[in-house]
Amino acid sequence: MNGETPKSHAARAALDYVKDNMVLGLGSGSTAEIFLELLGLRIASGLKVQGIPTSKRTAEVAEEAGIELLSIEHADRIDLTVDGADEIGPKFALIKGGGGCLLREKIIANASDLMVVIADESKLVETMGAFALPVEVDRFGFSITAKKVFDVLKQDGTSRPDVVLREDKNSGKPFITDGGHYILDCACGEITHPVKTAAQLCAVPGVVEHGLFIDMARVVIIGGDHGAEILER
Ligand code: 5RP
């Protein structure tokens, strides 16, 4: 790697949690990709692990890095998932899905014995919601689902939520997730009761998954200019 950055400090510190013969959940996003690159170097030096990717993009990057992939259907356990986050709030509640991979990320994190989050310090927040919450929805009836999602967020105290269908930056067409769904980006300003909001979003028909990850991360590694701080709960 050419020079360390806050993200690379966090990614490097996460390597300490990786042991021989582990099955790893491989996160998505720029910080997770630095971790994949560093993990690949360890594998080249003799470490033996298998990885389950949380996105098609991560599968490609992991293969390039020399990480052996395992299909989730063939995994009897996932020891550790290392993934990034868009926001890290109180009690390690997370907003994820900036890269549109939240559904697979959540399935894999939830199935893991340990989830370690790696991020730079800009991701740590006291109140969640400055980052627009990604909500993955079925394409069928998505505009009706969007109205219901708006109602949930409004009831939960957001004065005027802004719910926008995510577009693919290159084509200008709706962004399609690896699972074939749409994403609604929901600008809330503040999410003051993430546990309640998470439960209410799950109850909306058409919502496939939302980007609030509650009670999943046990370790958060925050990278700074000069190293990484490890927070555990
Ligand atoms: C993708 C994610 C990413 O982990 C999140 O967007 C953070 O990405 P980055 O490390 O590039 O800031 O949730 O769906």
**Total separate domains:** 2
Mean pLDDT across residues: 97
Low-pLDDT parts are none
| Radius of gyration, whole Å | 17 Å
* Ligand list: ribulose-5-phosphate
Report the β-strand fraction as a percent range: 25-35%
Secondary-structure blueprint:
Layout: H1 6-14, E1 23-26, H2 30-44, E2 50-53, H3 56-65, E3 68-69, E4 78-83, E5 87-88, E6 94-95, H4 102-110, E7 112-120, E8 133-137, H5 142-155, E9 162-165, E10 182-187, H6 194-202, E11 207-210, E12 212-213, E13 219-223, E14 228-232
Parallel strand pairs: 1-2, 1-4, 2-3, 4-7, 7-13
Antiparallel strand pairs: 5-6, 6-12, 8-10, 8-11, 9-10, 13-14
This protein binds ribulose-5-phosphate.
Quick overview:
This protein has 6 helices and 14 strands. It has 233 residues and is an alpha/beta fold.
Description:
The chain is an alpha/beta fold and 233 residues long. It has 2 domains: 6-125 and 215-225, Rossmann fold (3-Layer(aba) Sandwich); 133-207, 2-Layer Sandwich (Alpha-Beta Plaits), CATH 3.30.70. The protein is built from 6 helices and 14 strands. The chain has helices at residues 6-14, 30-44, 56-65, 102-110, 142-155, 194-202, and strands spanning 23-26, 50-53, 68-69, 78-83, 87-88, 94-95, 112-120, 133-137, 162-165, 182-187, 207-210, 212-213, 219-223, 228-232. Strands 3-2-1-4-7-13-14 form a 7-stranded mixed β-sheet. Helix 1 packs across helix 2 (30-44) and helix 2 (30-44) packs parallel to helix 3 (56-65). The two termini are 31 Å apart. The structure holds ribulose-5-phosphate. Ribulose-5-phosphate (5RP) binds at residues 27-32, 83-86, 96-102, 105. Ribulose-5-phosphate binds at residues 27-32, 83-86, 96-102, 105.
